[in-house]
Write a structure and sequence with these properties.
Layout (H helix, E strand, L loop, with lengths): L2 E7 L6 H10 L9 E4 H7 L9 E10 L4 H6 L5 E6 L2 E3 L3 H17 L2 E7 L5 E11 H6 L11 E8 L13 E10 L7 H9 L4 E3 L2 H4 L2 E3 L4 H11 L29 E4 L3 H8 L8 E6 L2 H13 L7 H10 L8 H5 L11 H8 L2 E6 L10 H4 L4 E5 L13 H15 L4 E5 L1
Parallel strand pairs: 1-3, 1-4, 6-10, 12-13, 12-15, 13-14, 15-16
Antiparallel strand pairs: 2-3, 4-7, 5-11, 6-7, 8-9
Helix pairs in contact: 1-10
């Protein structure tokens, strides 16, 4: 019987906006309980030379850090685990599409480890943590080896293909070779897993083009993260929601009246700053929601870097543009260089907000679930900066949504919180 658990590897180096976006895009059918599937359905829908017997199961996903992966896998009940690092974007559903149609049923059965295998030369072979499929039963059978690095360790020799996917460290295939060698320097991550499986005659293969072409991985360096995401996202059309406003576009000045402790806003930092004015000293939590990932990234970079740029927005725009973000800015804003301005007048406000809990979430700010107790926890007074979302042409809201929110839902919110909003 074949069964699968999805294990998400946490990555604290990712921008929150990118982390949240990629996490929301990862789909897995088993949320809170095991799901079962008739193997006859897979046999008829998925191309394979292998006969699938019995029930195929998916187990609820688990989350852990890389250094805790061994302990997490030791508790896994399924035959296989798909390890996916936060920051990955996969073009298809992980189950069943990526596992059965991209990796393929034959290889699930034939191989014990499938992923990005890197030839680290004097540091042995590396199992890259971005994504891999491992046969948990086989891993346990060879002693549940650690994924950590090690020194002064004897490892199985490897025969690798002479050709690479790119550079000289991405072999297209690897296999067990005769003998072993001792590695005195720190080995690469996953080296002991690779060695133990090969030593016991289990097969390993690197991801092929079919897997590589279905996924995008954001690495830890911030500019690499942003560049990868921007390369993945298409240049927006006239109706696309992936637009970023590098300056405030509000035609009418509006200001919050209450001393709120929680602010919820679309990803338009300068618009928010102008509306907070001097009503900010009790704020301890700030949550940005937006359907535009480029806008969320711009906002996160703004709050994390603007002070270092002496509050000059143009310097931040240079970073954003160098990562490929210019394509998400309206042509008129580029033509008239709307990014050439300073926000030094808000320095005290920005200093206060830098000490607050700021979250960046991909999603529609009009969703009622935003005001759940789980989301707002200990908030007492809430201010929401909708700007023009209710009549935004790039949105998909109906005209009567705002009427319902204003007349029916706000009275419910006010039963729990002191509440105000600006449109």
């Amino acid at each position: 019987m074949i069964s699968f658990t999805l294990v998400i590897l946490k990555d604290s180096e990712l921008l929150q906006s990118i982390n949240d976006y990629t996490s929301q895009k990862i789909s897995w059918p088993a949320e809170n309980k095991v799901k079962e599937y008739d193997s006859n359905w897979f046999s008829s829908k998925v191309h394979t030379d292998k006969k699938l017997n019995g029930i195929i199961k998916t187990f609820p996903l688990k989350k852990c850090l890389w250094e805790n992966l061994k302990d997490t896998l030791s508790e896994v009940e399924s035959s296989h685990a798909l390890i996916v690092k936060e920051g990955n974007i996969i073009d298809v559903d992980l189950f069943p599409d990526f596992i059965f149609n991209v990796i393929g049923t034959d290889d699930i059965v034939d191989y014990s480890l499938i992923g990005h295998i890197l030839d680290k030369k004097e540091r042995y072979y590396n199992l890259h943590n971005q994504m891999f499929l491992i046969n948990v039963n086989h891993w346990k059978a060879v002693g549940s080896p650690t994924f950590d690095r090690a020194k002064n360790i004897e490892l199985q020799n490897v025969k690798r293909s002479p050709d690479n996917f790119h550079d000289d460290y991405t072999p297209k295939s690897i296999a067990k070779a005769e003998g072993k060698n001792t590695y005195t320097n720190n080995t690469a991550q996953g080296s002991q897993v690779i060695s133990a499986l090969l030593e016991n005659n289990y097969k390993i293969r690197p991801f092929q083009d079919k897997e590589r072409n279905k996924k995008t991985c954001c690495y830890d360096d911030v500019t690499d993260q942003v560049s990868s995401i921007f390369n993945f996202l298409d240049k927006p059309t006239n109706s696309s929601h992936n637009i970023v406003y590098v300056n405030s576009t509000s035609a009418r000045p509006k200001y919050f009246k209450n001393e709120n402790d929680t602010i919820i806003s679309v990803a338009s930092p300068v618009n928010l700053l102008s509306r907070l004015k001097d009503k900010y000293k009790k704020i301890n939590k700030l949550i940005f929601y937006d359907i535009s990932l480029p806008a969320l990234i711009w906002t996160e970079l703004f709050f994390k870097n603007i002070k270092d740029y002496n509050y000059e927005v143009e310097k931040l725009f240079e970073l954003y543009s160098n990562c490929g973000g210019e394509k998400f800015v309206l042509d008129a804003h580029l033509k008239f260089k709307h990014y050439q301005y300073s926000v030094k007048e808000y320095s005290k406000l920005l200093e206060h907000l830098s000490k607050c809990n700021i979250e960046y979430r991909f999603g529609d700010i009009t969703r009622p679930s935003i005001y759940s107790k789980e989301n707002l926890k200990n908030s007492n007074s809430i201010g929401v900066n909708f700007t023009n979302v209710w009549d935004y042409q790039r949105n998909i809201l109906r005209k009567d949504d705002f009427v319902w929110f204003r007349d029916e839902y706000i009275p419910e919110i006010k039963k729990q919180y002191n509440f105000e909003y600006l449109d």
